[in-house]
């Protein structure tokens, strides 16, 4: 029996079909990757946005080191479950701190909406807010060309957040962070300083530069070695927070706590913990296990939660060698612990190698 070779047209058709199959296969792979990415985004997905907020992007009347105005973003019309209450949550620069750090700032509660309200630290209606860092600082060192005052020190200081030179936190401390930029968007559109705009989704993007523990200098000329991008999206009464770190050179990271808050309300509960399942006073020193997904402070009237996405980035605890991921500290603050590497082999991130975490805050009436 003889077999004849396919003609040239057959070969061309076959080649074309194979190219189509290959294209479909690549497309299918891309769709699978996108689906996987969407799965990772589930903790940040929300139902349809139906509620609107007033966003007031307000100048504080002082300049940052970058020449721009220090500012606070006030978000109001937050639902606590009681119609008569008017709740305002704010994010922005904290004056009288070493870095003028951008952070979760205050929560105010009024019995009615009054456009003449001027929100101040000493306001009796302010139930949350302290000169500390809720979006936490970081402990890291550069690998090469360490030229700071502590280049040969065995101690590793926090930089960024509320922490100035050598971990000092008073108003006169030398800065270890520099705000590069800040943008505010309402429903995806940029707004200007001192605007008041209504919308369903409020996004704040802040970019900072951080010095390393072994590049900081007392004269303020320490080298910046890490870019920090803070993205806050407020929608459906929840503040979603994502922080991206991009090394500007090769670094070693020792500690990242992620998110925290000062314990203003009387009681603390660890959500998800298998060993610390009780209700604890807000000033106890306590560590929970590695299963905590949220820390809740509450009293008879309100509950305030900070949460972490334990399936995203360093929130998965791959780099946490401890047997806990949440704690109440002696400073009466509740923290997460995402990277703890002080007593282990160096954890290196190379220049441009991004590492991230995400979580957020919710405030509600305790029903």
Describe, in short, the structure shown.
This protein is mostly beta strands and 367 residues long.
> How far is the first residue's CA from the last residue's CA?
86 Å
Work out the radius of gyration: 24 Å
Q: How many strands?
A: 25
Question: What global shape is seen?
Answer: globular
Q: H/E order of the elements? A: HEEEEEEEEEEEEEEEEEEEEEEEEE
Walk across the major sheet and give the strand order.
Answer: 9-8-11-12-13-25-20-19-16-17
Tally of alpha and pi helices: 1
Mean pLDDT: 87
Query: What structural class results from the helix and strand content?
Result: mainly beta
Instruction: Please give the largest β-sheet.
Output: 10 strands, antiparallel
Share of residues in helices: under 10%
Strand coverage percent: 35-45%
* Low-pLDDT sequence parts: 1-43
Characterization of the model:
The protein has 367 residues and is mostly beta strands. The chain has one helix and 25 strands. The chain has a ten-stranded antiparallel β-sheet, with no helix packed on it. The protein has a six-stranded antiparallel β-sheet with strand order 5-4-3-2-1-10, with no helix packed on it. Strand 19 and strand 20 form a beta hairpin.
Provide the descriptors you would attach to this structure in a database record.
367 residues, mainly beta, six-stranded antiparallel beta sheet, disordered N terminus
Question: Topology, please?
Answer:
Layout: H1 8-40, E1 53-63, E2 69-78, E3 86-93, E4 102-110, E5 126-128, E6 138-142, E7 158-159, E8 177-186, E9 189-190, E10 196-199, E11 202-211, E12 224-235, E13 238-247, E14 251-256, E15 260-262, E16 267-271, E17 280-281, E18 286-287, E19 294-298, E20 302-308, E21 326-328, E22 333-336, E23 339-340, E24 347-349, E25 355-365
Antiparallel strand pairs: 1-2, 1-10, 2-3, 3-4, 4-5, 6-7, 6-14, 8-9, 8-11, 11-12, 12-13, 13-25, 14-23, 14-24, 15-22, 16-17, 16-19, 18-21, 19-20, 20-25, 21-22
């Amino acid at each position: 029996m003889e077999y004849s070779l396919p003609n040239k047209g057959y070969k061309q058709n076959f080649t074309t079909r194979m190219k189509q199959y290959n294209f479909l296969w690549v497309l299918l792979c891309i769709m699978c990757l996108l689906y996987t990415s969407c799965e990772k985004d589930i903790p940040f997905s929300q139902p349809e946005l139906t509620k609107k907020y007033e966003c007031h992007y307000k100048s504080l009347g002082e300049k940052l080191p970058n020449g721009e105005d220090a500012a606070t973003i006030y978000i109001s019309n937050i639902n606590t479950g009681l119609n008569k209450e008017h709740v305002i949550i704010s994010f922005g620069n904290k004056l009288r701190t070493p870095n003028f750090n951008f952070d979760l700032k205050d929560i105010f509660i009024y019995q009615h909406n009054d456009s003449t309200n001027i929100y101040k630290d000493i306001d009796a209606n302010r139930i949350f807010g302290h000169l500390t860092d809720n979006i936490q600082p970081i402990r890291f060192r550069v690998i090469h060309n360490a030229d700071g005052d502590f280049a040969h020190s065995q101690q590793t200081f926090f930089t960024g957040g509320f922490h100035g030179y050598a971990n000092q936190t008073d108003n006169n401390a030398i800065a270890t962070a520099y705000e590069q930029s800040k943008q505010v968007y309402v429903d995806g559109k940029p707004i200007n300083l001192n605007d008041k705009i209504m919308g369903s989704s409020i996004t704040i993007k802040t970019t900072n530069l951080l010095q390393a523990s072994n590049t900081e200098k007392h004269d303020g000329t320490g080298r910046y070695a890490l870019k920090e991008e803070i993205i806050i999206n407020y929608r459906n009464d929840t503040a979603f927070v994502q922080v991206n770190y991009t090394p500007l050179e090769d670094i070693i990271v020792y500690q990242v706590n992620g998110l925290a808050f000062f314990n203003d309300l009387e009681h603390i509960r660890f959500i998800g913990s298998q060993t610390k399942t009780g209700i604890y006073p807000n000033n106890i020193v306590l560590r929970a296990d590695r299963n905590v997904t949220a820390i809740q402070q509450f009293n008879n009237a309100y509950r305030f939660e900070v949460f972490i996405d334990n399936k995203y980035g360093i929130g998965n605890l791959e780099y946490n060698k401890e047997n806990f991921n949440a704690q109440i500290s002696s400073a009466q603050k509740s923290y997460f612990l995402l990277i703890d590497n002080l007593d282990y082999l160096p954890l290196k991130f190379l220049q441009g190698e991004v590492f991230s975490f995400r979580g957020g805050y919710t405030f509600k009436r305790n029903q």
